[in-house]
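TA notes, week 10

Several of you asked for a full example with nothing omitted. So below is the full record: structure tokens for the whole chain, then the designed sequence directly under it. When grading your own attempts, check the secondary structure regions first.
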């Protein structure tokens, strides 16, 4: 035929990653790979930020930072604390100070810290509970009193309604009002699980209700407080609002409050527990449904579910789920964009080829990341930047489109792509690989192109296939390159190196000639 048909895509892949249907034909709004990508505020596939170390000197012997928490005292003073190497540290500027104090020497670092009645309390399975009473102080063991003291198996607590609430085996125990030492209250969870005998994982507060997470079920109660504010809570006043069977939380540190909702990792993916006032019910939304299979494979490879960490950053609009130590090897992080939920109730997702052993976001919306020997901030566009802002390592960004037939009217014709054009935002001197494949076979032909310093205009020969043309100016770079080969269905991708500057994919254009009709 010889007819030329264009394919012009603005903000390709802005609906995020879809690996559930990556083998078929999808709209250009999806992508099938989004390594080290986010969805930026303009709705474009863009590079994730990197990490900068906050401490100048590595923690002795470079142990993994396993817990991060922001302690805010009764006067509004705040410090970030972290645990690593069986010690607890506070951060001041670029220094981490040991504030382990007089606590019994820990043998692990997976503390669950909460702020409660002006102090910071920490619980961890196999350890005595600990307390920090001032931002300038040190931790000490808590001497518990009462008839229902949490045992050493307690691994999760929350502070709500003037009390501490703790999951202790099959029991929910809670402190007397406004004290962290006296415990005289117990609620037998074995009488309320819908899935037979379940295992308590976490307890949380949500919208004036108490949420009890088991691994296979969730229980929600109203009125979890004492009317007088003192003494033993009258559990007869607690009313059951919702009992959810078959869905629970499998990882304590996957739970994040996101304002009007709670996100958590279940055995079926990342779920949202949201109440609708109109229906007076709590439907469960599957945020990971478009990548559920791949996510669950990765979760299944994590050696210990207690290693799974998460963070929510309101300013950045993301929920991060870090999966360290997959199959005794490396790990990954899943990114969920929460600024605009998709029509099917899921979140836009991407996948990062890095992981963190602890995560937390402070009141200033700084997300802190734990690695070996360092407390890091999520910032800039290099990994492992030194505390003075120098150094750091680059990382790859890889985007791949779904399979496309270009235009449905010509789906049975061969397509002969002649030329591709890219508009990239925020690039500097870097190298781009543009690649493409045909007919559901991930065998790619590629062109490697070097972009000159922003503002320069030049042309470069690229092998025997043709030339790439480059135009600079402002914050955008235009790139074009010749293409080759042919097929009925095409997939294309972009790979480049992120090394200190913001990068986003603004537009992709492909000019294609039609060949003969194929059956």
């Amino acid at each position: 035929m010889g007819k030329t048909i264009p394919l012009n895509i603005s903000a390709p892949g802005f609906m995020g990653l879809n690996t559930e249907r990556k083998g078929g034909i999808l709209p250009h709004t999806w992508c099938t790979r989004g390594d080290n990508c986010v969805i930026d505020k303009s709705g474009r596939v863009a590079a994730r930020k990197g990490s900068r170390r906050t401490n100048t000197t590595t923690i002795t012997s470079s142990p993994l930072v396993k817990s991060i928490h922001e302690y805010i005292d009764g006067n509004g003073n705040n410090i970030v604390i972290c645990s690593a190497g069986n010690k607890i540290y506070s951060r001041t500027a670029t220094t981490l100070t040991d504030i382990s104090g007089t606590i019994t020497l820990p043998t692990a670092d997976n503390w669950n810290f909460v702020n409660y009645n002006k102090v910071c309390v920490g619980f961890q399975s196999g350890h005595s509970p600990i307390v920090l009473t001032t931002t300038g102080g040190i931790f000490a063991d808590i001497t518990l009193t009462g008839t229902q003291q949490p045992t050493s198996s307690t691994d999760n607590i929350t502070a709500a309604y003037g009390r501490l609430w703790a999951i202790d085996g099959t029991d929910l125990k809670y402190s007397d009002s406004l004290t962290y030492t006296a415990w005289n209250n117990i609620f037998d969870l074995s009488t309320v699980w819908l899935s037979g005998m379940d295992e308590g994982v976490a307890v949380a507060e949500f919208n004036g209700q108490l949420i009890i997470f088991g691994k296979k079920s969730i229980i929600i109660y109203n009125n979890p407080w004492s009317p007088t504010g003192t003494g033993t809570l009258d559990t007869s006043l607690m009313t059951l609002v919702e009992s959810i069977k078959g869905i629970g939380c499998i990882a304590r540190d996957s739970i994040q409050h996101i304002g009007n909702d709670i996100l958590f990792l279940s055995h079926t993916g990342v779920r949202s527990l949201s109440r609708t006032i109109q229906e007076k019910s709590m439907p469960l939304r599957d945020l990971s449904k478009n990548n559920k299979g791949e996510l669950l494979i990765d979760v299944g490879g994590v050696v210990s579910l207690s290693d799974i960490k998460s963070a929510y950053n309101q300013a950045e609009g993301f929920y991060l789920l870090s999966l360290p130590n997959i199959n005794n090897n490396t790990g990954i992080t899943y990114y969920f964009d929460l600024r605009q939920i998709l029509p099917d109730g899921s979140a836009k997702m991407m996948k990062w080829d890095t992981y963190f052993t602890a995560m937390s976001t402070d009141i200033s919306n700084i997300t802190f990341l734990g690695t070996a020997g360092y407390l890091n901030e999520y910032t800039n566009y290099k990994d492992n930047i030194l505390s003075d802002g120098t150094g750091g390592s680059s990382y790859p960004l890889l985007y791949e489109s779904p399979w496309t037939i270009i235009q449905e009217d010509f789906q049975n014709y061969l397509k002969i792509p002649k030329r591709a054009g890219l508009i990239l935002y925020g690039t500097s001197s870097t190298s781009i690989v543009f690649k493409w494949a045909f007919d559901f076979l991930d065998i790619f032909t590629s062109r490697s192109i070097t972009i000159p310093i922003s503002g320069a205009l030049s042309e470069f020969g690229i092998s025997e296939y043709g030339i790439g043309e480059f135009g600079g100016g402002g914050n955008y770079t235009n790139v074009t390159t010749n293409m080759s080969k042919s097929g009925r269905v095409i997939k294309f991708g972009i790979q480049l190196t992120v090394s200190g500057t913001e990068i986003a994919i603004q537009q992709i254009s492909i000019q294609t000639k039609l060949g003969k009709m194929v059956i």
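The chain has a mean pLDDT of 90. Use that as a sanity check on your answer.
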